[in-house]
Amino acid sequence: MTINHYDLMIIGTGPAGITAALYGVRLGLDVVVLGDIPGGSTFMIESLDNFPGFPDGITGTQFGVQAFQQAQQEGAAFTMTRLNQLTRVEGLFTGTDTNKQKYTSTSAIVATGRIPKRLKVPNANLKGVHFCSMCDGPLYRGKNATLVVIGSDNAAGQHAITLARIADKVLLISRNKRFQMDAALTNRINVLSNISQLSGTEVMNYEGNEVIEGIMVKNQEADGKVIAVDGVFLAVGWRTNTKMLHLPVKATAAGYLKTDDKLMTSCPGLFAAGDVRETDMYQVLTACADGARAAKYCAEFLEEKNHLE
C-alpha cells in the first residue's frame, strides 16, 4: 500500500478546509485535502447574501465549487474521499480514507464542520423528514403540500422561504417564544402570505406509519394537537463531525474542539478551523477566515519544528 506524505493534511472540503488549502499552498506547503463534497454543506444554502463581493448573492453550490476549483488550480491535492480515521504517533499524523489509502503529514487541520441534529421525538426516523430544503423541497412541487420547518434561527428562516415557493402552506415552528433570525430574513418571511409562524410551540411526536403524515404539538393554546403535514424540514441544531479523530484532543461538552489563539488544539500540530471548533460565530465568512489563519499558523509551526526545507 502506497503511503503519501505531506506537510499538511486537511480534513474537510467546506469553506474552512478549502481556504486552508489555498493559503497553505501559497505559503509553500505540500497540501492534501480529504473530503468528497466540494464546498461541504454550502450546497444547502440557496443564496449566500452576506459574503462580501457578491452584492446579488451567490448560490452555496456555486460558491463551494468555485472555491474548490481555485484551491485545486493553486496546487492543493484533493483525494475526493472521506477520512475514516486520523491518528498521531511520534509526531506524525496518519489518515486512512474510505479506500483504505493512507496519508501522513507533520501537521493537520480539522475542518469537518457540523452535522444537523434530528429531533428527539417518537417516530423520529419516518420518511419525509429532511434537512435540506434546496435538495428535497422539489419533491413536493405540484402536490399542494403543507410543509413544516422546525427551528428558530437563520437556517430555519431560509428553509421556510425556499419552501414557500413550492408548498401551498409552510408552518415555521419554534419552541422558543421568539424566533432568533436576522431582521432582514424576518422581514422577507413576514411578507410571504403562505408562511405561518408558530413560536412557543413544541413538536412532541411525528404521526404516521412509514411516512410522516402529521405532527403533534404543544403550546399554551393546545396540548397534544395533531397537525396534518406532508413533510418536515429540521433546523434544530448541530453536532460536531469529529468521530474520525482517533487521538486525544480537548473539546467542549457539546463536542466543539478547543483551540488556542493560533487555532491549535490540545494535540501539538493539530489545528481546527470553521464550525468544528469552539467559536462565537458560525458563518461561511468566519470559516474562511479560520482556514486562512490555521494555514498560516501551520506554516509557522512547521518552521519552528524544522520540518520545512
Structure, described:
- The chain is α/β, with parallel strands linked by helices and 309 residues long.
- It has two domains: 180 residues, FAD/NAD(P)-binding domain (3-Layer(bba) Sandwich), CATH 3.50.50.60; 118 residues, FAD/NAD(P)-binding domain.
- Helix 1 packs parallel to helix 2 and helix 4 packs parallel to helix 5.
Task: Walk me through the topology.
Elements: E1 3-11, H1 15-26, E2 31-34, H2 60-74, E3 77-78, E4 83-89, E5 92-97, E6 102-110, E7 114-116, E8 129-130, H3 133-136, E9 146-151, H4 154-164, E10 169-173, H5 183-190, E11 195-198, E12 202-208, E13 212-218, E14 223-228, E15 231-235, E16 238-240, E17 270-272, H6 284-304
Helix pairs in contact: 1-2, 1-6, 4-5
In short:
The protein is of the alpha/beta class.
Let me know the CATH homologous superfamily of the largest domain.
Answer: FAD/NAD(P)-binding domain
By secondary-structure content and strand pairing, the structural class works out as: alpha/beta
Strand % is 25-35%
Q: What's the SSE pattern?
A: EHEHEEEEEEHEHEHEEEEEEEH
Tell me which CATH architecture of the largest domain applies here. 3-Layer(bba) Sandwich
Biggest beta sheet summary: 7 strands, mixed
How many beta-strand runs? 17
Q: Give start-end ranges of low-pLDDT stretches.
A: none
Q: How much is the average pLDDT?
A: 95
Number of helices: 6
The coarse overall form would be elongated
CATH domain topology of the largest domain = FAD/NAD(P)-binding domain
- The rounded distance between the terminal residues' Cα atoms is 27 Å
In total, how many domains does the architecture comprise? 2
Percent of residues in helices: 10-25%
Rg from Cα: 21 Å
